[in-house]
Amino acid sequence: MNTRDPAAEWLRIAEHYRQMKNEELLALARDRSGLADYAQQALAAEFRSRGLALEPEPSEPQPIPDVVPVSSSDTATGESDEDDPYADDRKLYEICKVWSLRDARQVQWLLDRASIPFFMGPEKVTSADVLTANFAEGVTVQVMAIGFYWAQQALQNYEPLDQPPTPPEEKEWKEIPVRCPRCQSTDVIFLDRTGDQCETKPCFRWVCAACRHRWQDDGLVKE
């Protein structure tokens, strides 16, 4: 049984591709159908970081997918999570959250330059330009556990241009006590409301428990 760790192999291959010349990468891309999935992803990331274009394959095209399954059972080893000793290394963790397409592109550029695989949004896409998630709710960017440290290093210079919307501040209501107009005591008692024409005349009746003064008003307490 093949016990290679695909995540570690991805990092090793990504570093190898980074040291290759453009001509060598182009030659490799012409016959990339024989590469493992993680090798194709590393090759695509290196092409994006250099601004190169992948040429179509002469035989049956096998494009590198933008959506990468998260399940660790879909790996080059074909092992299930229970049998795979590297399943924990491939678990995804949120590295940041973006609130606009331009910030998503900035994060992609930084991670691509460091050859670190990433997954954006609930659909786990590997390209910001194919995102369909709502930026107003924030879009998560995830990386594998094995690459989390390097992803943190790569994003040290990340400066988001857009921040999450600030929720409106809730108005704090201050309770103002009813005071007796004669002695200013707050020990007042509400008696009743007279009539239904509060808009035209005072209709709330009060009595002060301190000085026994009685009065009517419109029920509006002023500071």
Number of domains: 2
Physical arrangement of strands within the biggest beta sheet: 1-3-2
Query: N-to-C terminal Cα separation, in Å?
Result: 81 Å
Would you list the SSEs in sequence order as H and E?
HHHEHEEHEEE
Shape: rod-shaped
Task: Give the helix/strand class.
Answer: alpha+beta
The quaternary structure here is: single chain
Low-confidence sequence ranges: 64-79
Summarize the main sheet. 3 strands, antiparallel
**Cα-atom radius of gyration:** 33 Å
Describe the protein's architecture and organization.
This protein folds into 2 domains: about 150 residues, no CATH class; about 30 residues, no CATH class. The protein is rod-shaped, with a radius of gyration of 33 Å. The longest helix has 14 residues. Helix 1 packs parallel to helix 3. About 25% of the residues lie in helices and about 15% in strands. The strands form 2 sheets. Strands 1-3-2 form a 3-stranded antiparallel beta sheet. A 3-stranded antiparallel beta sheet has the order 4-5-6, with no helix packed on it.
